[in-house]
Amino acid sequence: MTRLVALSATLLVLCASAALAVEQVHLAVTGHTNEMGVDFVSQNLACNVTYVKVGPGSTPSTSPTYPGYYSAEIGYLHQSVMTLLDLNTKYQYNVTCLNEPTVTFEFTNQPVREGGMKVAFLADFGLENDVSMKFLVEGAQKNEFDMVILGGDFAYNLPTNHSQVGNDFMNAMQPFTSTRPFMTAPGNHEAHDNFTQYCHRFQGIAEHAGETSGSHSNLFYSWDSGLVHYVAIDTEVYSFFNETQASPYPFLPQEQLDWLESDLKKAQANRAQVPWIIMVGHKGWYMNFEPDQHHDLKPKMVTNFTGFDALADKYKVDLYFTGHVHLYQRFYPLLGPASMTPYERPQVIDKDAVSADGHIYTNPKHMTTIVAGSPGDQEITVVGMCAGDTVLEHLEGTLAKCEDNYGYGTMTIKNATHLYWEWQEHGPGNGTLPHKAVTDYLWLIRER
Fold first, then answer.
1. Amino acid 20: pLDDT
2. pTM above the 0.85 mark?
């Protein structure tokens, strides 16, 4: 019996040791082209990141890590920065923590791809019914994109089941978030814990891209990658004002708008070097109100996009990626409502810029909005919403394309004047087996 007890104790120790592992590794740009940030979770305080250029004769470098937050449900959330990186160069990096196996990954810093840099965009991505996950993992393995942007609503939800849902979700994405930058914007589902887990799980963005862009936050910030100036905005501060004030990065709505105008003004002045401006957020121009399920479907304000829209129009933002509605929509270039009247129509729809087949926008006068909110989650897609162009009066005549299927999109920055977008369907909303097919595309042309 004594030997059996000793054996059981040994097995328990071995199991506990096996459970200790570096996990949830994800990269992020810092705002400096010769750097790459990395965040990860460990059960230890003592960690470091060692990185080396792939190839003979390279000398490894080591970066310290900083555990910015601890949660008994998650672990220590570490941040580090790899510095003095060469452009278009592959690096291998190791994350090593005390009493935990070292994990090793590779990434290419500021890759130069034949045909242009490729970026995957999606929003509203859950752990349950994660239809697009396998395609993102396979896409990364095949080097189909250079960066991933997720526009809010993570895991459904990050704190659920004592944070196990968030942990599993971050680990499921690790095959692609550990090998290319993973940039984010908050959604309404991140408000459940006052945005706490969102802010800390992506704290490296706040400390680096947030600092560089002057927002000092990961709720809204900006960065340059190649020919694009990207701006992430927080559309949730209006309906989750109190939660925002209680978050790790509190701010007032006007503070964000003031920062946004300053940021866009600088980006507009820098068009000769970085010609495209693309904005990312969770809600878009027609989502200021939605029916209140608890009060006879009366209009309930859920954001105020009018301020964002006015600044985007003033500084000629080219493209806006968003989600919240669980389907795919590509709008004609337009200027959204000027006031907060429920379900108001846009001020201008620029169909003069649109080709006869609807797939080319040439020198549009206003911003193009793309909703890509259906990579998969337990709420499924909004089947039937694509009838909204005729059923919902304020959307009539605004949509070039609408699909209630699963998928995500990829954008290719061809050059300073041409941008290409395509929507990859991963199965329709009726639950049939997933597949991969390009079912929509857009050429956005700016003759500068």
1. 77
2. yes
